[in-house]
Amino acid sequence: MKRILLPIIALLATLSVAAQTTVVLTGDKKGDTRVMVSNVQVAFTENRTMLSLDFILDSLRVSSNRYRAFTPVIVSKSDSTQRQRMKTFIVSGRTQDIVFERDGIDPFYADNFVKVRRYNDTPQTYSYTDGVERQAWHRNADIFVECDLCGCADQKNLELAHLYTLKDLDPYDLIALADVVPAPAKKDRSLHGSAYITFVVNKWEMKPDYMNNRAEIRKITDTLDVMVADPNVSVREIKIHGWASPESPYEHNKMLATNRAKSLTAYVQSLYNLSDRVFAPAEATPENWIGLRAAVVDMDETVLPHKQQILSTIDKVLGDLENNVKTQADRDELSIRSKYPDEYRYLLQNVYPGLRRSDYDISFNFSDFTLEQAKQIYKTKPYQLSLREMWDVAQTMQPYGPEYNKVMQTAVNVYPDAPEALINLANVAIRQKDLLKAESLLDRAGDSAEAQNARAVIAIIQKRYADAERLLGDAARKGLDVSRNLEAIQLLK
Fold first, then answer.
1. Could you tell me the pTM of the whole model?
2. Which CATH number is 188-364 given?
3. Is there a smaller number of Cβ atoms within 10 Å at the N or the C end of the chain?
4. Model confidence over 410-459: pLDDT tens digits?
5. Rg of the Cα trace of the chain?
């Protein structure tokens, strides 16, 4: 079983929020001072606020003895009184660059700067990165760029260009989900059912047109017809188990139940061109005391006044049969009939017929499919896919898109008890902000590292940080990298 970590966004340092649009710092009216920035990224780490961007200088002309300076500044949203200046980006002409090298930078910028020489009329881009100590007021603050377009370090002549607004931290932007890649598995399946075949009294010859037998037989044949006609299905085994009711002597019931099961097996076998090896030897339980007990338990004492006494006798018979003591069953059945004749008559008429049944088990498997075959099978018969095949189909779709999410839901529909399917769909629900559904799915998903990580993510979103740290600790001990979610907790705190 493989794991796949799914961070909701790509991270620069810890959290990256990107503004991909190009911002013009200086308008066209500035002529040869036109500068643009692009690829703005703001990153929050535990202690710093980071900024990266590209200064595009293609339209900028700088005289040989002049310079231009651009300084990002973080300004508080509420009153603009709190400010943090970042590293100044200085673009100088040829002669000014020599002067800077000889005499140093203007003191206004000297403490924190980076300098490049401008080569006029040529494309030129500078990738800028800087960080400042992170402050609580940075949340929802604005980032401006101070533009010194005269190259005179005169604060009164600085122009401000709005660059970006820092958004409050959203836990959905921080968390990392861990999907589970299902292991390849055999697609062995089985179906179980019961057919209530009626036989002539004390006979075992199979009569398909007798009483309601045709409809009961269809319970078996309708299923087999579909399997035999489907080239993707291979029938491995068909097993029939007969049950008789307890009203006749035990040995007689044993003979009837066994032969009736054999008769039904032979009849079903005659309908299909399947290998003899597919049909398992017929089995039988001579007397269905288990079914009788279940029926009596569900009955009201107004119908069965001596319900408890009858149950006590049934339990004695079941205990004897479990210990392979079969000689007492006839005596105990007679005891019920003689002590409680009216109630016995009611059981004989209303319960005993349902005890005479034939259980059938059909074991089969589906073919293994290539990815292209699986994509087609998914559209019409997704139940024929293994969990891994369904996962592979999902990987051809946009992660967390509508079709991808539908595959994950189908996986749980087909494999409702598979932890991998439950965890992966829970991750989908978290992405959709449906935490109630995610929690319900995780209730059945076990305590694997991925399940604990998903529970921790929910706790992070709900600001239950102590619970989240405990769950992430468990996930880490089980081998999962949970560093991103631990960093998310520190950031959100």
1. 0.64
2. 3.30.1330.60
3. C
4. 999 999 999 999 999 999 999 999 999 999 999 999 999 999 999 999 99
5. 39
